[in-house]
Design brief:
It is a single chain. The protein has helices at residues 4-20, 26-32, 39-51, 68-78, 86-97, 102-117, 170-184, 192-196, 208-224, 250-256, 259-266, 317-337, and strands at residues 55-56, 65-66, 120-124, 133-142, 145-152, 157-163, 230-233, 275-278, 290-297, 305-312. The longest helix has 21 residues, at 317-337. A hairpin with a 7-residue loop joins strand 9 (290-297) and strand 10 (305-312). By secondary structure, it is of the alpha+beta class. It has a five-stranded antiparallel sheet, sandwiched between helices. Strands 4-5-6 form a three-stranded antiparallel sheet. The chain has a two-stranded antiparallel ribbon with strand order 1-2.
Length: 338
């Protein structure tokens, strides 16, 4: 265990390095921070921190920089989440409240996160497997053709065309619409197949083929849409940190193009807590020089998806964590009200 003083020295090194981009020396630490010990004592503390792998010395400098291990300890023990100011919170609320549909909410969230943190923002669409049915609409387009519209509690809208083996009358369509909504409104998507399996038996024999076609399309929609969707923005922000990436930024950009990689980075959506992965904690080799801050968001107590940011390990962790958490909270509120 590190002493309180050495923890303070590590905190000061992280803060100075994140702020100045320059390796930090003992003289600068004693001048800039009220450590209440001599430069010689600070040098001894820095030597101990280096021996234990929390800081390292770049070849070209007498100063020290934090390692992944040092940032990890800083995040776990030393970094409080920095709250946003009232004007920042109002700006978030006003910007997100103008959204007209779910795509707009996700798009605005990506832009907002990228602007607030000056990192790469990643937002996962709400997962249908964790959503509930708000409404099912059936519209007759032709005697043997219907449109099925599925609306979720998170504002997601899915539309499908259904060609039926025989025409369905308007009264039958209206009856099916009412029975469907009675059975599935407010229910989890995972429960829908069980709830509709006996529905055809409530209709005349000549209509059951068409009813089964509608139900098959409904169930296909649930299966097809289990594939997760993401939106990413602010990739150009990485160019400001070129010197933070050893050799080249290219592996980072290539990793960010892979949706599967990003989903793994964000982690399980059901975990609504804040997750910070630093450097080599990211399994993908191309992202070993980055940190990922993510959190779950949802319309109630349970998370339906994740959002977060990707940036260099030399990151303002308290500020980034505060921004990510605040944006997630507002997105959740907007989904609950939509």
């Amino acid at each position: 265990m590190l002493s309180e003083r050495r923890l303070e020295v590590l905190r000061a090194i992280v803060q100075d390095y994140v702020g100045t981009e320059e390796p930090v020396g003992s003289k600068a630490l004693t001048e800039r921070h009220n450590l209440q010990v001599s430069p010689a004592t600070v040098r001894n503390d820095m030597a101990a921190l280096e021996d234990e792998g929390y800081i390292a010395q770049p070849h070209t400098s007498a100063g020290r920089i934090p390692t992944d291990k040092g940032y990890r300890l800083f995040v776990d023990k030393l970094a409080g989440v920095k709250p946003l100011s009232s004007p920042e919170r109002r700006a978030i609320q006003n910007f997100l409240e103008g959204a007209v549909d779910l795509d707009d909410v996700v798009g605005r969230t990506v832009r907002l996160l990228a602007q607030l943190t000056r990192q790469v923002a990643v937002v996962q669409y709400p997962s249908l497997t964790r959503s509930t049915v708000r409404h099912v609409e059936l519209l007759s387009l032709a005697p043997a053709r219907l449109m099925l519209v599925l609306i979720t509690d998170t504002g997601r809208v899915e539309q499908r065309m259904v060609d039926t083996p025989a025409p369905l009358g308007e009264a039958t369509v209206a009856d099916l619409r009412a029975r469907l909504n009675s059975a599935v409104t407010g229910e989890r998507f995972t429960a829908v197949p069980r709830l509709v399996q006996d529905l055809p038996e409530a209709f005349d024999a000549e209509d059951r083929g068409a009813i089964s076609a509608v139900l098959a399309t409904l169930l296909e929609t649930l299966v097809e849409e289990t594939e997760e969707r993401l939106m990413i923005g602010g990739t150009a922000n990485l160019t400001r940190f070129g010197h933070d990436f050893p050799l080249t930024i290219r592996p980072v950009l290539e990793a960010l193009e892979e949706q599967v990689v990003l989903l793994k980075l964000l982690g399980e959506a059901t975990d609504s807590g804040m997750t910070v992965r630093i450097g080599h904690e990211n399994a993908h080799e191309g992202l070993s020089s980055t940190s990922v801050v993510s959190v779950g968001y949802g319309s109630g107590d349970e998370a339906v998806a994740k959002l977060g940011v990707v940036g260099p390990t030399r990151m303002d962790y308290p500020g980034t964590m505060g921004a990510v958490r605040a944006v997630a909270r507002y997105v959740g509120q907007i989904l609950a009200e939509s």
